């Protein structure tokens, strides 16, 4: 559980209502693994009587001491919510620590990661929390997404020392692109430095830098962070968790995702069923789940404790089979760091206006998931770390629309296809990049428009830029129409397949990015047909619904078939919160499995499931799937 409130410079009454009874009740009834409580927010004002930072002007009690006493009593770990890069007060006291815009204007909240800020403010406070207050760790907020392209004297001097060059001027596009890469490396060095220094003083103090080593900030691990974490969107949260969790699950590090227990604009608390659905989207991937709630000046909202306790029970019922489970590979979407960062005008956070690739990756991922495939994300570092044998376990790897890709990834994809793998290249820019491998000749890219098609009696549409495609050895598998009113299959090439070695290169000459904002049954069916044509049957086939999302994991020698009911109102912006997820009923499931299993059970609960075994597949019927169920096969 996570609590913070970002104390302001004029904060009053901190500790006035130190409510030991309510906090004790929270810990007793919810029984969390850990609590994260506030120590310093983005204003830079500390909510405890720090000796090495800037405490709030009025302290009537030591909230942090109260949290530590009570968490020790209940055997619960205590972590700090502590703002890192964002620290307005540090800049007020030390204006020279501010990051600076290219026109010379200093930022008011964003500190320079090249400045003495970490050594003189951040590190001393983290050591104070570890040694004086005996906290177990810190969740450092406002980090990669708060880091900016920095032209401070510190940054420019570091750039000159590293490259021998002066910092670029405003209209030097190529120079600024190189400079942004330098700033990204600077942030990674900053995190590595403060982690190393704090661990010298307190080796067991665990640190996470918010969103580092995730889809927000793809990088090879150079910092000794102890776990990976991020707080995801308060609205459309399940979709965010689906994407961000998949980018973490192959990190080989402990990880969790934090949902907001409330929505903003307007503020309203989420309901139990809504929070269970968000929890299910995370824990089925093997990660931990935490919930963010507001912290008052000395207590928390007592009226929500019963709901939090029920939510904790929902998670605990699934912990045995879900927590730290590892992926059982079926398919993956590649998330290239070079594709993300090229032409990206900010440093880390998503920015679809200046770099479409991240948004497009969402689209193809959701299409594959909706088509029934257990689909992971592989970031460039995760792809690089994976041995050839493990990579060969994937039936397919999909690539969204990008302009550039790492050469070493191309080489490994060639080997993967030669040995029987299948690569799906999606989008007009990507297919142009891969045209020789796809066995086609691609013409000029034209303006975007609708691409209409029909498959299995269902209509589909994508909005995308277009290209002319001339097959040069590839087989055309589908065509599209330029408008819905046209008759027939269409005349423009939509999908091609080119056999190479034992595997295939598949070209989709449309961008699936629009799918995430405008899902159609035809677009879902089309991607399913494409994968099936080269990979054969899905590992898990579900009859009767497309609302049961499949995630395959392994733990303790068992294959876990996670089914998440995504039929709720989580994608409907009209529902700020909701208290009902309609159960899926009479769900027929077929699972590819090499031998007759010794047991098939349903979790939570451990009920034995009746099944038949026909032609290498387990066939069974579930009466209902409420929110999240796991079929455990041994």
- Rg over CA atoms: 26 Å
Q: Proportion of β residues?
A: 25-35%
Give the strand order, joined by hyphens, for the main sheet.
Answer: 15-14-16-17-22-21-20
- Unreliable stretches covering 5 or more consecutive residues: none
Largest sheet: 7 strands, mixed
Distance between the termini: 33 Å
Number of beta strands:
31
Apparent shape: globular
Mean pLDDT level = 94
Structural class: alpha/beta
- Number of separate helices: 17
Any overview of this molecule?
About 30% of the residues lie in helices and about 30% in strands. The radius of gyration is 26 Å and the shape is globular. A hairpin with a 2-residue loop joins β29 and β30. The model has no long low-confidence stretch (mean pLDDT about 95). It has a seven-stranded mixed beta sheet with strand order 15-14-16-17-22-21-20. A six-stranded antiparallel beta sheet has the order 13-24-25-31-27-28. Strands 1-12-9-8 form a four-stranded parallel beta sheet. It has about 625 residues and is an alpha/beta fold. α1 runs parallel beside α2.
